[in-house]
Amino acid sequence: MSSYSANDGKVIVKRLDAPVPKTCAHRISQLLLGFGPHFERFFGDDYKVHMASTGGLTLFTAEDVCTSEVVSHAGMIFNPLNPRVGALFNVFTTPAYRRRGLSSKLVQLVLKSFDAIGGSVCILGTGSPHAARTYQKEGFRHLAGGLECSGGGAQGYNPDDMGEWILVRLSNTEGAIDEHFNALDYYSQSNNVDDFEVQDLHRRHFPELVLLFNAVQANATDDGPAKLAVLCIDDGVLAEERLVRMCLELDAGRVTGKVLVHSETQRVHGLYVHVQQQDPSTALTGADGDGAYVIPFVGADVKAMFKRMTTPAGL
Q1: R_g over Cα of the chain
Q2: Average pLDDT over every residue of 101-125
Q3: What is the separation of C-alpha 300 from the centre of its chain, rounded to a whole number of angstroms?
Q4: Phi and psi at residue 285, in whole multiples of 5°?
Q5: Distances from the Cα of 85 to the Cαs of 183, 209, 236, 246, 270, in angstroms?
Q6: Among candidates 28, 144, 142, which has minimal Cα distance to 90?
Q7: What does pTM read for this prediction?
Q8: What separation in angstroms does the CA of 128 have from each of 54, 149, 167, 257, 293?
Q9: Per-residue pLDDT tens for 56-86?
Q10: What does the buried/exposed string (b/e) look like for 84-117 if buried means 16 or more CB atoms within 10 Å of the residue's CB?
């Protein structure tokens, strides 16, 4: 915990790791309602689950010294069993405290903490040109999507956004920032089935899956853009919101699935989802059904193995 001057007042900056105390989690949730009514239904409920979980989330808040109100927040979601990929989430400062450097300060702190636990790839989505410029100063580079997409481009969940820019930041073992993310370097193109394993789908896979869909979006392949009809994912830009919905359905037992994982690196290379019971409120798909998505970077034998192991007989 540290004190930080914010121009005309002081705030206390705090680090919290999941599970977050209920009182703090409530204050954070109240702050994040500032994103708008579109946020609460899926992203808000999902973030409450992350805050109550054991591990997999580190966040920083700024609290007003006088009122104890949480006025700024930034969080990093990651797989606690393999914290190499993180999703920078819910960077938000209440309007009265903006233009004071709070968001930048918290983002710097959360990135430093992620690097310290071995994090190497961080991904985020933003619909704000100003925010995109701020993230670029911290080493983030464009991966997929675009802003000012009124001409028919993909847009994120926020109806006020100008589109959706997916940004990625890479750091090596020395903490230096690499300039570009190359999916062909990151993902294995192996055709050896012994190099891979199949794991049960879990919400801890979320950051890797967001990266996976956008990596395909950013790298032209014969298989086309990242699509998974059962989750209504038409491209990588839409993946973040749809995967959040999937996690909530997974928690409720209405969705099950498998992921294809490279055994040595533990990087997720594919996703299979089975909708067991459709909840119309989530709008995951129009009807119950199966859907399999396999990253096209792996060889044909590996794809066949994953499909074989995710059929009813293979399960």
Answers
A1: 19
A2: 94
A3: 28
A4: -160, 160
A5: 14, 10, 17, 19, 15
A6: 28
A7: 0.86
A8: 32, 12, 12, 33, 30
A9: 999 999 999 999 999 999 999 999 999 999 9
A10: bbbbbbbbbbbeebeebbbbbbbbebbbebbbee
